[in-house]
Amino acid sequence: MSEVRSSRPMGVLFDIDETLVDLRTAMGNTLREISAADLAHFTEEDWAAYQHLYAADPQGYYDKYLTGELSFTRQRLLRVAHAQQAHGLPVFDDDAEAAWNDAYDRELPRHFKAYDDVVPVLDELDARGIPYGAVSNNVHDYQRAKLDAAGLERIKVLVGIDAVDAAKPDPAIFLEGVRLLGTDPARTLYVGDNPEVDARGACSAGLQGIWLDRTGIGEGAAATKTLARIGSLNELVEGFLPPVLA
């Protein structure tokens, strides 16, 4: 864990996907559930590669959604089309696209789950009297439904890209979260899984940005040595939070 903090926090904001909610696993399980009949010939290795390609989005289609170049549904369909083509499968026609997207929409929320370290950390924040919320690069209502499906209804403060017409790392979206918490940016932590968009973006907005590196990919990486980095949310409690209020 890096020791990069300026003062004790009075508030904490979180990213949602891959920070609070295990979205990659949810997407992978959904893909397998809705495509099992059509892809019955897939080996376990095939499934792993197919799911990874969809989640990793190497073509950057989700980023194009954030910039307004693609709709949310179109970026999703382009991602699955890329995964299909990479495995020598036919691209969906219009009817198949609509059917696939409907099935995906129905199935995905059933797989939303919070990481095991989330609820204990929120309990600690409550015990220490520290307000918290979430700032996400998706629209408010979609992420509200996701948090609720994952059992995180207790997170009341939520800022989506539609709140200020901006996406991370634009300072405006971080500062809207700070405004809703009623805290000072310099004493507000922001925790997320993306070192650039989340940690550096938050620091540029005047918050204390923390990179949640669940996979350990940043160990020894020179490019991220200036970032505060934790491997789990448990380390947030151990290294960044003030003691329980008496």
From TrEMBL:
Q: Which Pfam families match?
A: Hydrolase (PF00702)
Taxonomic superkingdom: Bacteria
List, in alphabetical order, the Gene Ontology terms for molecular function in this entry.
Answer: hydrolase activity
First and last residue of the signal peptide: none
Please, one GO biological process term? small molecule metabolic process
Q: Does the keyword Hydrolase apply?
A: yes
What keywords would UniProt list here?
A: Hydrolase, Magnesium
- InterPro entries for this protein: HAD-like_hydrolase (IPR051400), HAD-like_sf (IPR036412), HAD-SF_hydro_IA (IPR006439), HAD_sf (IPR023214)
Query: What does the record give as cofactor?
Result: Mg(2+)
Q: PANTHER family, from UniProt?
A: N-ACYLNEURAMINATE-9-PHOSPHATASE (PTHR46470)
NCBIfam families, A to Z: HAD-SF-IA-v1
Would you tell me the protein name for this molecule? HAD family hydrolase
